[in-house]
Design a protein that fits this description.
The complex is a heterodimer of chains A (183) and B (280). The two termini of chain A are 30 Å apart. Chain A has 2 domains: 1-97, RNA polymerase sigma factor, region 2, helix turn helix motif (Rna Polymerase Sigma Factor, Chain: A), CATH 1.10.1740.10; 104-178, Winged helix-like DNA-binding domain superfamily/Winged helix DNA-binding domain (Arc Repressor Mutant, subunit A). Chain A has helices at 6-14, 18-39, 43-57, 65-89, 97-102, 109-114, 119-126, 131-142, 147-154, 158-179. Chain A is built from 10 helices and no strands. Chain B has helices spanning 26-33, 44-56, 68-78, 85-106, 120-144, 149-159, 170-174, 209-212, 252-255, 275-279, and strands at residues 226-227, 241-242. The N and C termini of chain B lie far apart (144 Å). The chains are: A mainly alpha (183), B mainly alpha (280).
Chain lengths: 183, 280
Amino acid sequence: MIGAAFRVTLASAQAGDESAFACLFRDVQPALLRYLRVIAPEAEDVAGDTWLQVVAGLAGFRGGEQAFRAWLFTIARHRAADAGRSRARRPAVPLTLAEAAEQPMSPDAADLALEAISARAVVALVAELPADHAEIIMLRVVAGLDAVDVARIVGKSPGAVRVTAHRALRRLAGLVERAGVTQ
Amino acid sequence: MSGPDALHGEMPGFPFPGRPGGEHDEPLLDMILDRRPLPPGTPTEAHDLARLLAALAGPAEPGELAGEAAARTAFSRTSPASVSLAARRSARYRRSARHRSRRSARHGSRRPPRRRSRPARVRVGLATAVAVAVAGLGAGAAYVGVLPGPIQLIAHATVGAPAPHHGVPPSAAAQGAQPDTQHRLRPASTPVPRPARSASTTQAPSAPAALTSPAKTPHDGHRPAVRACIYSPWPAPPRLTLEPGHPIPLPPKLARCPKPVIWKPVIPKSVIPTATATAG
């Protein structure tokens, strides 16, 4: 999170300052990519489409950092849905080995124990959760949005988001316990 | 089911208090979600979960910022500082054209979308070019001497073009033809020879000269007549001489009219002095 300097950075980026835009990009891109790796197989492509749309609409955006992140993740969710529809229309496209290696998969306990707790490993672990649970965990934790913003994005009530997040955490704790990651 | 949330054995060994109902651990779960520091005495598993989520929201790892160059390129292409005015104008034109075509398609019109009118700067340029072209052609025509008489006279007075050839077209003047001097514009002060008047007309000495002064023609000596006198630099049409009481010569089609048209001069009574006035 950029914090207090966000408004100045955003205003500079809206005025055409490329370094200010790069600051915004570096702040949000890791969280965006991790979120998209959970909800869409082609995370990098969807992230690129998301940034194109953000660039196009950046001049008209008004709001703070929380609103900016909510706006950006809403765009990302829509682009991921578009990519999912496009993928459904072309079901015969084969995956290359490199792409398959990047897909979130269930890590085994040995792998998780060997490497330090990297973000990618945790993303793979979260991807084990049901889709709605994983998405809400990513939006609450990775994107840093509160329950109200998450509810607006996923189309649920804030209470339902809160309950789902709790269930997801309990499930995640069970997965970690089973994998023995933190032992 | 042991509670509203989970089946038996779904999360074995889950250590948080209130595990069967799931309600008592919610404040702790909220603290983990909000990444707030956990209170002392919290189970180790909760700390492990918090550390896991902290790693999930951690700083960028290698490869995660690989798309920065592409994003910066896209930004530099579409940022307001790099978009030129012409590009914005053309984009606006494309949008409006697209809107017009959609509207015409919605209304079932097959008419192609109208082009937007030219901007004012282009219109001024076009008007200037046309004015310069017309002025150049006019000056050339004036120096050649092919303009109509009055215009040629103006050109003679203003830009020093040759004086007009009165009543003679340039081709006729070049061939040595003599102009018809009878069709020149005669000023009102030019003295006109007055013929001898008949007894009826001598009673009206103050009648207007334009109506009563007959022209002396080579054919008939002193007959009063009204002549059609049209000023023109070109050869005059056949002269029409009308006499009161005589039928007007008509074209062949109109000449078949059963009743001949008789021309009678109408002179306002106010300009004709009475006989008593003159006798007195």
